[in-house]
Amino acid sequence: MKEGGTEWCYTAISLTCSHSGTQIGWHRSAQAAPLLGSCRGKTPAPMDVQMCQSIQPCHADHQGDLSAGQLLKWMDTIACLAAERHAGMACVTLSMDDIQFEETGRVGQVITIKSKVNRAFTTSMEVGICVSVQDVRERVERLVCVAYSTFVGKPAGPQKVLLRPVEDLCSAEEQLQHSLASERRRLRLYNEQTFSTLLQDYHTLANGQWRRDSNKFIINLDPLSAVSTEFTRVESIELVLPPHANHHGNTFRGQIMAWMENAATVAASRLCGCFPSLRSVDMFRFRGPSSVGDRLVFKAVVNNTFNNSIEVGVRVEAYNCEEWTANKPRHINSAFLIYQLANTPGDVPAFPQVTYTTQDGERRYLSAIVRKRIRMARKHILSCKEEAPLSVPWDKSNQVYLGYNNVAALTVLAGKQDWEASSISDRVAVYVHEEVELLCVQVQMEVMTSALHAFTLLADLTLRPLWDKHYLSCEEVERADEEETVYHIKCPPINGGKSRDFVFLLSKRQPCKDGDPYVVALRSVTVTTVPPVEGFLRSEAKCAGFLIHSLGLNSCKVCYYNQVTSGVLPYVAGNLAGWSKSMEETASACTTFLERDLITTLF
Q1: Maximum CA pair distance of the chain?
Q2: 3.10.129.10, 3.40.440.10, 2.30.130.40, 3.40.50.1100: which CATH number matches 221-383?
Q3: Buried b / exposed e across 414-442, counting CB within 10 Å, b at 16+?
Q4: Which residues contact 458 (CB under 8 A, 6 or more apart)?
Q5: pTM to 2 decimals?
Q6: What confidence tens digit (pLDDT) does each residue in 281-329 have?
Q7: Fold of 392-600
Q8: Which is more confidently placed, 464 or 596?
């Protein structure tokens, strides 16, 4: 069968998933979805599993959209079948994360779900899931979401099941997903380790009474304008019946996720007074099983709201008959679901601000901020999107045009609103700003020196290796005039990666009038006299630089900005994810250099 010029081959083999009892067919395609990869002329070891479902009214919500809970059940079923195919035995879900919903399905459309084992570790395996929707009348297929599940084999005894590795990776896409699976696993472990550290940082911000408006962090809100999170609490109970179980007698975990989504949606709806859309799931984490006859209690509450999103936390507790009588629950699952309102402008808050009235409410409020930061870092670190060339050709004939654009781009970047605090100390503050695929960082430094002196030193890029450990060397390539200079910078490798080099145009401007800042703007350019250097990966920066504001005769505020690109990301990724304080350390070194150099000059 051909759809949109692509030939799809289907092999119908009826198999029953031990996870849910659903019958699904194995699928091998001549050209599989990008998430899963394919092999032409060979039978790939990690076989695709495909489910196709026509969306019926029973699968939809009151608006005719496919219920997110129903979709989660289908996704868990198909992922389990792929895991069982690889393991050769019954498998159970440990977690499902990285779920990003791009589209939704409507009644009458067709949902296609594909899954494949990306990589098997010692006792666990990652299963990639790709969901698309098609309107049969338009024959246009759109991506709904991508997700990753972690499964383990269900042992017959007390010993864990050792899994065979995924072998015979035929396509470049399969090899990429195999490598990224290891990176995703590493990030999960890192995030668990750094969560408490980041939470402590935000507790420090909270105790400092910072506010998010005007580049500061909100922690104390006006109780008259903010809604208490206690108002959004939802508690719902379900009795696990035989139709809710798999053949082991354990509750089907896709069904548990569907019930959790329902409770979370009610909590979000209570806050905003309408029905928001589920946009992503931080993670479904299963801590233990439940069985037929158990009472499952679902507790949902809004943890925090942001400019255009809201996080709802859901906790699942299980009781058997004896535990129900003794009121001794088992915590079997937790998840954090992110909602948005459709067609809401990004600069207009979609949800009312919330506040908390208990110590546990404060913990949830701050934890939501930490998770948002981790999601942001994870998204950009794992992004595989190729960037278009960012460098522009350098020539003295277009010097005025390039210099103007360089300074203007930095000014626009500095003027962006809704910077969120990442860390704040007495003299150094780090902020981040995200817009869809755009990520920017800002570092503010209070320096005890004159603005002119700081400008003079920062505008000479050959001095930067003296205080920035990410600069191995910096050589002047061409000086067009007193305001425009081209430099070649070499940077060390990060985390075992390659050494990188950049070719920057530096444009510097002094204030036109009182109150204006000094400007040192940077961007990548292409210069024929500086070809790529062996052993270094030529990288690019789109917009970076310093704005230096005078605060007095011997004090100034130095603000560094950088619009993060794939070439810059390795040097800030640790900070974004909370693994390191390299930006704070570099800022402190810069402050010390600017102040020490002044002392050296005076004496």
Answers
A1: 85
A2: 3.10.129.10
A3: beeebbbbbbbeeebbbbbbbeeeebbbb
A4: 520, 546, 548, 558, 594
A5: 0.78
A6: 988 989 998 999 999 999 999 999 987 889 999 999 999 999 999 999 9
A7: Alpha-D-Glucose-1,6-Bisphosphate; Chain A, domain 4 (3.30.530)
A8: 464
